[in-house]
Amino acid sequence: MDPLPDILVPDLDILFVGLNPGVTSSRSGHHFGFPKNSFWECLYKSGLTDRALTREEDILLPSEYNYGLTNLVERPTISSKGLSRQEMKDAVPSLYAKIASFKPKIACFLGKQLSETILNRKVDFGLQEISIPDCETWIFVCPSTSGLATNLTKVQKIAIFQDLLFCLEFLKSALDTPLAEPQKVHLDFRQA
């Protein structure tokens, strides 16, 4: 199975970061390709997009919405259980470099397991009190939209995506106003 290409341009409003591609996504060549994955529905119903997009339209995210897509681990698996904790930790420096290079306003990590692996700390959903150093990227944690992630209802997931939209709108409206800087934490993933 082939990894999915990133959908990235510099200075995105939001970079959505998934754990890794699923088998269906890999085979289709499109992000969040499994029919029971609610990513595209959450984007639309939260107001992050003005229409319901299909997986085949993933490539349009940068030009139409200034959003991008990437994964922590490139290797496709049937489920997250197909990844070792070490494989995930080993991928963190590459993700960090990608975020620092492309400098999105917000890096949205999709899932607590993913977020806690990247940040090496416990997290709650929502805007985090830390940012990626050297690039001013804020971190937001949304739930996993995988069809296998059933700890929250779809309505609860959409509400958290609506919080992401609120944060984005706030950041965009406050660009000319000095904001309190988030706590700068050096994220050294090699020592995790």
Short précis:
The protein is an alpha/beta fold. It has six helices and six strands, in the order βαααβαβαββαβ.
Instruction: Give the rounded overall mean pLDDT.
Output: 84
The number of distinct helices, counting runs of at least 4 residues, comes to 6
Largest sheet: 6 strands, mixed
Q: What sort of overall outline do the alpha carbons produce when their principal axes are compared?
A: globular
Secondary-structure element series: EHHHEHEHEEHE
Strand order of the largest sheet: 2-1-3-5-4-6
The proportion of residues in beta strands is 15-25%
Could you give the distance between the termini?
29 Å
Counting DSSP E segments of at least 2 residues, the number of strands comes to 6
What is the SS-derived class? alpha/beta
The value of Rg in angstroms is 15 Å
What's the helical proportion of residues?
Answer: 25-40%
Catalogue the unreliable spans.
Answer: 183-192
Structure description:
The chain is an alpha/beta fold and 192 residues long. Helices cover 34% and strands 16% of the residues. The chain contains 6 helices and 6 strands, in the order βαααβαβαββαβ. The chain has a 6-stranded mixed β-sheet with strand order 2-1-3-5-4-6. Helix 2 packs across helix 6 (154-173).
Notable features of this structure?
192 residues, alpha/beta, 6 helices, globular
Give the arrangement of secondary structure elements.
Layout: E1 14-18, H1 23-28, H2 39-46, H3 61-65, E2 67-71, H4 85-102, E3 106-110, H5 112-119, E4 126-132, E5 137-142, H6 154-173, E6 183-184
Parallel strand pairs: 1-2, 1-3, 3-5, 4-6
Antiparallel strand pairs: 4-5
Helix pairs in contact: 2-6
